[in-house]
Amino acid sequence: MELLSVRTLIVELLLGLMFLWSLQVFVISSVNGERSDSRFLLTSNSSSIHAKDYCAMYGICGQRKDGKVLNCPYGSPAVKPDELFSSKIQSLCSTITGNVCCTEDQFETLRGQVQQAVPFLVGCPACLRNFLNLFCELSCSPNQSLFINVTSISKVNNTLTVDGIDFYVTGSYGEELYNSCKDVKFGTMNTRAMDFIGAGAKSYKDWFAFIGHRAEMDVPGSPYAINFQSKISESFGMEPMNTSVYSCGDTSLGCSCGDCPSSPSCSGSAPPSPPKRHSCSITFPSFKVRCVDFTLTIIYIVLISTFFGWGILRRTRVRSSHSPRMRPLLNAEDENQLRSADKQEKEIRPAQMSDDGPQMLKELHLPLIQQYISSFYRRYGTWVARNPTLVLCSSVAIALLLSIGLIRFKVESRPEKLWVGPGSKAAEEKQFFDSHLAPFYRIEQLILATVPDLGQGNTPSIVTEENIQLLFEIQKKVDGIRANYSGSLISLTDICMKPLGADCATQSVLQYFKMDPDNYESYGGVQHVEYCFQHYTSAETCLSAFQAPVDPSVALGGFSGSNFSQATAFVITYPVRNAVDETGKENWEAVAWEKAFINVAKEELRPMAQSRNLTLSFSSESSIQKELERESTADVLTILISYLVMFAYISVTLGDAPHFSSFYISSKVLLGLSGVVLVMLSVLGSVGFFSAIGVKSTLIIMEVIPFLVLAVGVDNMCILVHAVKRQSMELPLDERVSNALVEVGPSITLASLSEVVAFAVGSFIPMPACRVFSMFAALAVLLDFLLQVTAFVALIVFDFSRAEDRRIDCFPCIKVSTSESQKDNTQRGPGLLVRYMKEIHAPVLSHLGVKIGVVAIFVGFAFVSIALSTRIQPGLEQQIVLPRDSYLQGYFNNISAYLQVGPPLYFVVKDFNYSLESRHTNKLCSISHCDSNSLLNEIARASLIPGSSYIAKPAASWLDDFLVWISPEAFGCCRKFTNGTYCPPDDQPPCCPPGEDSCGISKICKDCTTCFHSLDLINGRPSTKQFMDKLPWFLNALPSADCAKGGHGAYANSVDLKGYENGIVHASEFRTYHTPVNKQIDYVNSMRAAREFSSRVSKSLKIEIFPYSVFYIFFEQYLDIWRTALINLALALGAVFLVCLVITCSLWTSVIILAVLAMIVLDIMGVMALLDIQLNAVSVVNLVMSIGIAVEFCVHITHAFLQSDGDRTHRMKEALGTMGASVFSGITLTKLVGVIVLRFARSEVFVVYYFQMFLALVVIGFLHGLVFLPVVLSLCGPPSRCKFIEPRRQDAPSPST
């Protein structure tokens, strides 16, 4: 059940993502400067000249304290640049020719700042060109004064500088500009570029408002306010800018369908509509009915109507038989004979011949196999009764010999070994992912949440100063945890993930303060946190200690939309390194720390939270396995009590009716205890045998099989003892035992073999837990049967000999003298249950009206169960398998309530051929010139319909980012020194010494050039050698403000470089996320959707692609759980049918038993649906087990019916009188008393899957075995095997056989 260790707590994988923090603004002002407190407002007409070839601002007149330069507010004619300067301008601003309104210093400032935006947009050339043109026109356009008006100036160091401007653009220009960029992806963070360059703007007005906002000190943004407007009075001589805008759908510019889904070339690849659910329903005026329910109802009405018609016809024929013409022909005293007068079957009536005539003898005509079985049991019973010691010792010795294998006993607790069969697709994919890329990290998590205010009816926000200070205190406790492993003290920093340095990649709102409480006040407290909720990607002060942004949707819970300030929970996640080899030192260090972490959370952290009226839930990677181990021992006492109650009942029911004067003689406590010991020996023998051959046991085997075998064994014990009791006391003991075995031996054999075969067929199931259970159960039931017919029969001989010798039960050495009142105690009268069955139960069922009602009710419930069973959901909720007092109960509840992100989803590509001759690159990427149906474009489209695709975001693509990174247009990314070695961006060492607040062009890197020129690439794609040479550079490149596309951290484990020199990348992954999954069915459906998506894309692209998520290996079983269950049940039912057919040699008998067993299973599944019991390995095992146990309710009654004489109704009564009491007391009540005790188990899994399902099995099995089956047999049962013969006159009458 550790498969359930999957949790919904999977967090956003920002850990390794090194993304930009500084690019909130690419709002390029030509200049920056330091302002004084003096500001001046100007009117629109205060600017002297607004004309072509005239500037509104020119040159740099100062800078702010944070280094941002400020323009001069002086209008002047546009200036003609020299040839070199003109070529520089043309390289960046292709629309500007001739005169310009910027100096070389202004242009270099422009170039340096747009450099930060280029990596976000270069994948869509149309958007990039439009974006650059906007700022080129703002900074250098020769007609600047026509659409720009300086409205505010400030004095810096006694020099006037620009403090605010109006920028006039037409609405159509703004709309087209926004449309060209709104869908461009930023794959590194699985989101849109607009989230970074426009703060998620939903319209061009929002985008312009973001761009024009004056930035605070040390915050990226414009150094002065830019007020974008679209209307202006003509009297001012100005006109809005309306330069041409490139459409992202322009095929010449090559934007991909992922960046421009509105492109005409992408019209054929629009987002697929959500698949229609194949649910047929019929609508009536006031309600709707599913087609399957309606169909079943119609079929049921037709069948029952036909059956009722037959009943009425039968009643009419019976009444007609009472007419005066018929009475002389019939003996009217016996109604049963009247009803059988017109039977088509040629049965011999059970009437005695007259006293004057010869006596008729009853003879059984058995099939050949049953003849052999009966003959064997007659001889064998006599031999056992005469050699009980030999039989007992030899059989027990064999069981003990098998039990020696227990010295090699081991329990399998690894989820992948329990629930994932050989050849499992998920197991193979996990092994490939772990070995070629990297295993998924371990997760330690805390959830600190507020308590709902019952008075106000809402839940208060967690984002308060007191709660943040408490979070700092909790973090201090966590940082102080030290775990001892092999003499070393392990701390969190020793095992945590560190993508870019020495700091752990902890996901917490405390990262907005660099995890340092000393920064709380200086950064601005709660206001700073709320600021970072909106600017976590851009503000430097919001950057985490591990140099990456922390998404508030990961660190918070319990909020709606983007209303982070109203969040009701802090979610703190500690990603810890994981190792492929789970037995390695690294994982054991983590396990040791996790144990200490849970202890601290229980003993210190939770009380701290409770003292502030908050709740704290927590979990570690190893928590579920530890709690499951505790759960496996939590109900040992409950199970033991269940077995003791069953033993007590056995001891009572095996004995005679209690009489105070003789109870110590007639009781069967010692026999019952011995029988229970034999049952335990059969279990130990089975476990010992399989342990000896190297098969590990499981928790299910340890919990269920003893109960199963005890339930089956008790039945046989009761039936054998009752059969011996029914024999005449005038016969010697060996003959009584022999006759008893002849009477019940065949039915016991039939039932036991059916059970063995039913379980044995389960060994063909690929799911290891079910397969191993079936193997252990089959052998245990077989050994139990063999011990019952050997050792227990010998024990019966000893016990009856003891009773006849007047020795006390449990103390057989003590003999009691026979008193006067005890002399005549040789013949026993029928017990209470036997009398009930003969005098009440059977006569009631013999009425025709009762029969019709019974059939209608049972068939009706079977049809209802078929309809209900289609509503059973696959899965196994984590809360059910854990102890009720487990700390994980609250954790899983909080996960469902608060977590806002889904599990990471990886699309893994095998054998990617990156050579220039191959088309694999364009089939995978999603930037310009990529195929419209490429993998990444398809993922982006699927993310538009998350309700059916379960894909939340576009994928982070190392391939897209690599192609952008090497692009000459991203001139700050892929660079090289003159000697050909890698040159980092200007804001990284050695270009920028560590500790510098700002860096210009350093001497070290002043000669660095881009890796390639445009002509070096073919359609923007590198050659095979270029790809091979630069891929390691990219994966080792650190991201920064000058180049956000560096692959280190974000893609360090996304590409397997082993053997890539041959032009083939054997494994790479593209990461996205599933939508939040809270229910088991969500996990199953998300996995199914991902596999269907990958299969479709792989087939289309002819590239091997598979999806991988950490929970797939645990939930793969549920993709085919219905198929597994139905095949298993069909095999078990088929095996029982064949065994019955072989032993009884009666097709009709076998069909009736099969039909009743199928109805029992269907009814149990109907109860499962009513009780919301899910379909999983545990319930499948229980359903298979129910077939084995249900055989007991059917076989004995059917066998007795076959051996009875008379018409069907009479034979039904005789069968119930003979075996009904044994079935009720030895099968039904025995299991019932044991099952009821399980109701008080501490683990919910015992209550749901053992108490509820076993109780349903016992009740449904009893009703079918003692109510429905007798009625069916009385209506259409097989003919009797009894024949009446006239003995030869010369022979003396012999006793009946």
UniProtKB/TrEMBL annotation:
<dbReference type="InterPro" id="IPR000731">
    <property type="entry name" value="SSD"/>
</dbReference>
<feature type="transmembrane region" description="Helical">
    <location>
        <begin position="1223"/>
        <end position="1241"/>
    </location>
</feature>
<keyword id="KW-1015">Disulfide bond</keyword>
<dbReference type="Pfam" id="PF22314">
    <property type="entry name" value="NPC1_MLD"/>
</dbReference>
<feature type="transmembrane region" description="Helical">
    <location>
        <begin position="1125"/>
        <end position="1144"/>
    </location>
</feature>
<keyword id="KW-0443">Lipid metabolism</keyword>
<keyword id="KW-0732">Signal</keyword>
<dbReference type="GO" id="GO:0008203">
    <property type="term" value="P:cholesterol metabolic process"/>
</dbReference>
<keyword id="KW-0325">Glycoprotein</keyword>
<feature type="transmembrane region" description="Helical">
    <location>
        <begin position="294"/>
        <end position="313"/>
    </location>
</feature>
<dbReference type="GO" id="GO:0032934">
    <property type="term" value="F:sterol binding"/>
</dbReference>
<dbReference type="InterPro" id="IPR053958">
    <property type="entry name" value="HMGCR/SNAP/NPC1-like_SSD"/>
</dbReference>
<dbReference type="GO" id="GO:0015918">
    <property type="term" value="P:sterol transport"/>
</dbReference>
<dbReference type="Pfam" id="PF16414">
    <property type="entry name" value="NPC1_N"/>
</dbReference>
<feature type="domain" description="SSD">
    <location>
        <begin position="635"/>
        <end position="798"/>
    </location>
</feature>
<keyword id="KW-0813">Transport</keyword>
<keyword id="KW-0472">Membrane</keyword>
<feature type="transmembrane region" description="Helical">
    <location>
        <begin position="848"/>
        <end position="868"/>
    </location>
</feature>
<keyword id="KW-1133">Transmembrane helix</keyword>
<keyword id="KW-0753">Steroid metabolism</keyword>
<feature type="transmembrane region" description="Helical">
    <location>
        <begin position="6"/>
        <end position="29"/>
    </location>
</feature>
<feature type="transmembrane region" description="Helical">
    <location>
        <begin position="670"/>
        <end position="692"/>
    </location>
</feature>
<feature type="compositionally biased region" description="Basic and acidic residues">
    <location>
        <begin position="336"/>
        <end position="349"/>
    </location>
</feature>
<dbReference type="Pfam" id="PF12349">
    <property type="entry name" value="Sterol-sensing"/>
</dbReference>
<dbReference type="GO" id="GO:0016020">
    <property type="term" value="C:membrane"/>
</dbReference>
<dbReference type="InterPro" id="IPR032190">
    <property type="entry name" value="NPC1_N"/>
</dbReference>
<keyword id="KW-0153">Cholesterol metabolism</keyword>
<feature type="transmembrane region" description="Helical">
    <location>
        <begin position="772"/>
        <end position="798"/>
    </location>
</feature>
<keyword id="KW-1207">Sterol metabolism</keyword>
<keyword id="KW-0812">Transmembrane</keyword>
<feature type="transmembrane region" description="Helical">
    <location>
        <begin position="632"/>
        <end position="650"/>
    </location>
</feature>
<comment type="similarity">
    <text>Belongs to the patched family.</text>
</comment>
<dbReference type="GO" id="GO:0005319">
    <property type="term" value="F:lipid transporter activity"/>
</dbReference>
<keyword id="KW-0445">Lipid transport</keyword>
<dbReference type="InterPro" id="IPR053956">
    <property type="entry name" value="NPC1_MLD"/>
</dbReference>
<dbReference type="GO" id="GO:0012505">
    <property type="term" value="C:endomembrane system"/>
</dbReference>
<feature type="region of interest" description="Disordered">
    <location>
        <begin position="324"/>
        <end position="354"/>
    </location>
</feature>
<feature type="transmembrane region" description="Helical">
    <location>
        <begin position="704"/>
        <end position="724"/>
    </location>
</feature>
<protein>
    <recommendedName>
        <fullName>SSD domain-containing protein</fullName>
    </recommendedName>
</protein>
<dbReference type="InterPro" id="IPR004765">
    <property type="entry name" value="NPC1-like"/>
</dbReference>
<feature type="transmembrane region" description="Helical">
    <location>
        <begin position="1151"/>
        <end position="1171"/>
    </location>
</feature>
<feature type="transmembrane region" description="Helical">
    <location>
        <begin position="1183"/>
        <end position="1202"/>
    </location>
</feature>
